[in-house]
Amino acid sequence: MASFLEVVGAIQDFRTELFQLRSSSAANLRAATAKIGLRGLLGVNVSPLQNIHATGIGIRRKAGRLFPLEFVIKLFVFHKVRDITPKLIPPLLRNSFQGVDIDVEELPVLEIQPSTPRKPVHSTRSPQREIVAGMEIQPLGASFTGTLGGFVRSVTGSPETIFALSNNHVLANTNKLPTGTEIVQPSSNGPSDIFARLSNVETIHFPSLANPYPPMNRIDAAIARVTDATFVTTKKIHGISKYTPSILSAKPGMKVMKSGKTTGVTHGTVTAIDVSGVKVNYGTPSAPQLAAFDHVLNIESPGGPPFSQKGDSGSMILDSNTGCPVGLLFGGDQTVTVASDMHQICNRFNVIPV
Fold this sequence. Notes:
By secondary structure, the protein is mainly beta. It folds into 2 domains: 4-107, no CATH class; 109-354, Beta Barrel (Thrombin, subunit H). The chain is built from 4 helices and 23 strands. The chain has helices at 4-24, 26-32, 168-171, 342-349; strands at residues 52-62, 65-77, 96-97, 100-106, 110-112, 131-133, 136-139, 146-147, 150-154, 162-166, 182-184, 194-201, 222-226, 232-237, 255-260, 264-276, 278-281, 290-293, 296-300, 316-319, 325-332, 336-341, 351-353. The protein is globular and about 60 Å long.
């Protein structure tokens, strides 16, 4: 059984050899996967090689049970095929690599998780007009809502200037809205509910005919400058008693929690970190717009209700033991939730949680 550090040491070599396998042995792998139905690709024309689409550092899953102290290389496929002759499977993909076990796991194309405006699980209005993380937010007049993940401040700027943190697709409607767009809480068309203005966005990159191989995405995030600090309360997340605004690195097996607009406070387990190659649909099933992400977190709630649902986009993921933020939720399905790494978000915007 490999240690966490042994898996960390092996993953990059594994990815390099997997890339070489795809490049030099495409014909053999194509023959081995000829029977694969690429379920989850939403009708997009792809090569059978793309059944293998993501890798990460995770914990073992056996017969549906997670083993938090057994670390493995995760090899994610769109559709797990069980009738391929073992001898046709390339040696790299069998059992182990450099003494580290390999778990092959299904991971379909995931979806972003905004929702249409509706009554949220939290009561978002109060006589004191207190806005805290975990509440419903949206751009003024938008037809969708998401969740306020938390508040941050610039490392180099004035400590009095506070920013609201959520997803690009929540605050900027996936690259569409300009800087200065008003952000409201709760879902509203009323100017009196404006509490922030969009100030900085990490662009989501998509493939196109002109650029079929765009840069890989790492985060789905944006920040909005709070326009009236008397509206907001920092160092607090709705429904969560323990919140420590100090970033922590996620680790496979870590117990986590979040507060979201739709499902409220939920608890789960980080099943994989540094997951690279994940496909997320920003369009619709009939008109997909797929973006690929590297270095994200996978989170599940085994045996219970889903960790997240539509409307929870933007929720901050916290380590259950310390209350420290480790990620920012941006997509998923009924089984898996994906989150951007909080270190990468804070480095991108040069901010820290408050």
